[in-house]
Input
Amino acid sequence: MKHMNSEVKEERTSNKKRIDLFLVPIVLIAAFLNLFKIWTDEYANAYYTAAVKSMLQSFHNFFYASFDPGGYVTIDKPPVVFWIQTISAKIFGFHGWSVILPQALAGIGSVLLLYVLIKRTFGVWAGRFAALAMALTPIVPAVSRTNNIDSMLVFTLLLATWMLFRAVRTVKFGWVLAAFAMIGVAFNMKMLQAYMVLPAFYVFYVVATKITWKKKIAFLTTATALMLAVSVSWAVVVDSTSADKRPYMGSSQTNSVLELAFGYNGINRLTGNTSVTGSSHKQPAQTEQQTASSETKQNSNSSADSSQSSNQRKSSFSQKMQAPGGGNQNGMFNTGNPGPFRLFQKGLSDQISWLLPFVIFSIVGLFAGVKFKGPYTAKQKESLFWLAWLLPVAVFFSIAGFFHQYYLIMLAPPIAAFAGAGAVALWSMYKQHNDWKSWLLPGGILTTAALQVYIMSPYVSSIGVAPIAGVGALGVILALVLAIRKQRKNSVTNYLGVAAMVVLLAMPAYWAMTPIIYGGNSMLPSAGPDSSSGMGGPPSTATNSKQSGFNGMQPPGISSGNSSSNNQMQPPSGSSNGGQMQMPGGSSNNGQMQMPGGSSNNSQMPNSFSSKSSSSKRKSGGMNAEVNQKLLNYLTKNNTGEKYLFATTDSTSAAPYIIKTGKPVMAMGGFSGSDPILTVSKLKAMIKKGEVKYFYLSGMGKGGQSDVITWIKENSKEIPSSKWQSTSSSAQQGPSGNGTLYEITLK
Output
C-alpha cells in the first residue's frame, strides 16, 4: 500500500511539471488534421445534421434524437453524441462546422489521452511516439472531421481506460465504477460497439489489481451491473413510453431501442444481416457456393437476353465485386473479404494498417520472457490491456459481415499504443542485447516498409512512383544499416533510429492529410487520394474520371458510352437483380446504384461525391445534399396548415429540406425507407387530420412501405412537373425531375 501511495504522490508531482515541449507540435499536428477547413463542410452528414436541426427545436426532439422536427422517426443511433452536437450548435449557431467541432476536439483529446496513458509506464518518448502515431493514423482525422459518432466514442473509451488505470494504481473502487459507467455512456453513443473493449478491461483488472479474488469478483460484478444500468437507462425510458407519444425508433423493426441495439447496431453487424438491405429483416450475405447455385438457376430459367446476363453473371462469380482500383471485394463499401488477412487487403489497410507489422514485432518484444504465472511488470500488465483491446477488435473486423471503413478507428488506440511503447522497447533491446531480441527493431522496420509499399502500390497514378520507391528503398537501407551497426552506441545510430521512425510515419501522415487536400466525404469518411468519394480504395483509371461522381468509378447500370457490361462494377455475390448492384436501402431501381436511403432512377451522380466541388462550401451530406428551390417554393406557398411540408420515402430526400427550412418533412420509411412505421390506415388518419398532403415519390418504396406507396399513387393527384421542377442543373440535387409530386386531400 505504501508503494501505491508513493505512486500517487509521484503522479501528482509529475502533473505539476511544465508542459512537455515535444508534445506541443504533436497536438498542433492533430489540431490541424482535425480542424482545418471543417468550416467548408456545409451539411456534414446530412442525416445526422438534420437531426441536430430538429433537436434544437424542442426538448422532446432533443431527448429522443428525432430526425425530423415533427417527431415522426428518430435517427438510427442513441442520442448522447447528438446531444453534444446540439449543445455545440446552440452555442456557436447551426452550421456544418459546429456539429463537426465536438468530434474534431475529441480526436485531439484522444491524442492527449493516449500520451498520458503511455507516458506514465513506458516513458515520455513512448508517450510522444504513441500520440504522434494516433494523430497520424489516417482514419482518425478522416472520421474526426465529420459528425459521425466514432471519434467521440473512442475518446470516451480512452477516458474510461484512464479511469481504469487509476483504479488499479490507487486501489479505489470508485474509479472502477467510474470506468465501467463511462463504457455505459459510450454504449449510448454507438451501442454494442462500445463493449468491444470489455475483454481488455476485465483481463487488466484481474491481472493488475493486487487484491483478493473475492474482492475482484465483487468489484467487477458491481461495476458491470452499473455499466449495464447506464447502458440501458435511455432505452428503458424510451421503450416504456407509449409509441404514440414519441418518435418511431429509426432502423428498428419493432420500434424498440433494445432491438436496435442488439439487432441492427449489434449482432447484425457481425452476421451481415441488416434491416436496411431490403424488405426482409434478415437478409444474409450469400456465400460463393450459394452464388454459384443462384447463378445456375438463373442461367437455366432465363433464355432471353442470355448473352448479356451470362456475361454479367460470369464476371460477378469469377471477379466477385470489383471495387475501385481492383481487388476481390465480397463486402460492400470496399471492406474486403472476411479472413485472417482482411486488415491487409485494399480498402482497409490504407486506413489503419500502416504500422501493423511494427506493432507485431513490438508485441513480441514487450512480452519476451513473460511467464504465464507471473509475476508481471507494470509494462507487461498494460501491454496485456492493449493486446486485449487489439485482438478482439481485429478479429471482429476480420470476420464481420457489415461495417464501414471508418469503424476501423476502434483499432487506432491499441495500434498507436504499441507503436509508441514498442519503439522504445525495441530500441532498448537493439542497444542492450546481442540475441534474437536485438533483431526485432530492424525486422520491424523492414517488414513495415514492405507493407507500406504494398498499400501504396495501387495508387501509383495518383501519388507517383517516387514516394513508393522512396519508402521501400529507405526502409531496406535503414533496416540493413541498423543490422550492421548493432550495439554501436553513438549519435549516428541514434539518428538512424529516428530516421527510420520518420520514414514509417511519412506516408501515414500524407494519407491523414488527404481529407484536407482532396476533400472528404462526411457520409462514409475514409482517407486516401480518393477520400472525397467516400468509397475507399484506389482511384479509378477510367477516362471519364473528372466527370464521374466516384472519381471515375462507373456505377453499375449507368453507361459511360461504349463500355461493356464486363467492365461494370458487379454486384456482391449472389445478387439476383439482373446483375445489378443493390446498395443498402432497397431495390436496384432499373440497375442504378443506390446509396443508403435513396434511389437513383437514372439520375446523374450528384457532385457531393466528387473530389472537386463546384462551390467553396462542400455539401457532402449524402446522395441528395441540396434542395430544389422551385419545389420548396411551391410546397411552402401551397401549405394550408399541414404539419409536414411533404412526405417522402426515406431520409435522403428529406434531410436537406429539414436543414434548409427547419420544417417537418416526413421520411415515411426512416433512414433507408425500409422501416415498418407507416400503414395505409395510419396515413389516411394523418391526411384527414390535415397533417400532410404532399408526397414526393421516387421508385417503388422498400420493405413494408410498398403498400403505402401503391395507395398514395392510386388515391392522389399528380402535380404537373412544370409547377415544381427546376430546369437548372443544380436542381438535380434533392427531389428533382426523377420523381413525382403527389397531392392527397381526404374529406
Observations:
- The mean pLDDT is 81.
- The first strand starts at residue 647 and ends at 648.
- The chain is about 50% helix and 0% strand.
